[in-house]
Amino acid sequence: MRNLIILLFSIPFLGWSQSHEDLTDLCSIENSEIIILGSSNIADYKCELYDFSNNSNIEIVSEVYGHTIKLKNAKVQLKSKGFDCENRIMTNDFFKAIKGEQHPIISVEFHQFTLTQDVANHPVQQNIPSKISIRLAGVRNFYSPRLSSLTVKSDQLTFTGFVDLKMTEFDIDPPTALFGTVKTADEIRVAFKITFQMK
């Protein structure tokens, strides 16, 4: 990530229209979290993951076009069995619903983001247009959320935000419990804070 961060800090923002291709950096994921928020006819639920141990050597390629930075392989790999939904029954039901046995890895990939201000003077920016994809239960879908914040440091790039989606978009039947008396809603929110740490 060093090459990209140096570029972001060094090029004047106004009138910046150059294209810089194939900046490659080796990164890991540090101090990050992903939380899945949902609801049912009984109560809301939360499934949280902190284990990013299988994301220690991510080779990210970046390209800069004007204010837009395109990324290749900025992918976070999540273990399906790594989510904790605060009670054992809900955790097991969630794992079954997302077809964790057949698809042990969930991925969240950042494809691009667009700066709104000069990074040198505004290393923390808000409401940033972005493009990401999520692969869940073997199905990949694309989204264009506005990031809550983007923080640029000398050796880190941190994305925070959320994506609202439906489980049925991934061919997942919302889980039920107690012979169908507890029914979860189709809609869920994937909230994230992801920090790519330069090596």
What would your notes on this structure say?
With 199 residues, this protein is mostly beta strands. It has a single domain, classed as Beta Barrel (Lipocalin), CATH 2.40.128.110. The chain has 2 helices and 14 strands. The protein has helices at 2-10, 88-97, and strands at residues 19-29, 33-39, 44-49, 58-65, 68-72, 75-79, 105-114, 124-136, 139-143, 146-152, 156-166, 176-177, 182-183, 187-198. The protein has an 8-stranded antiparallel barrel. The radius of gyration is 18 Å and the shape is elongated. The model is unreliable at 13-17 (pLDDT under 50).
Sum up the structure in keywords:
single chain, 199 residues, mainly beta, Lipocalin, 2 helices, 52% strand
Summarize this, please?
The chain is mostly beta strands and 199 residues long. The chain contains two helices and 14 strands; from the N terminus they run αββββββαββββββββ. The strands form two sheets. The chain has an eight-stranded antiparallel β-barrel. A two-stranded antiparallel ribbon has the order 12-13.
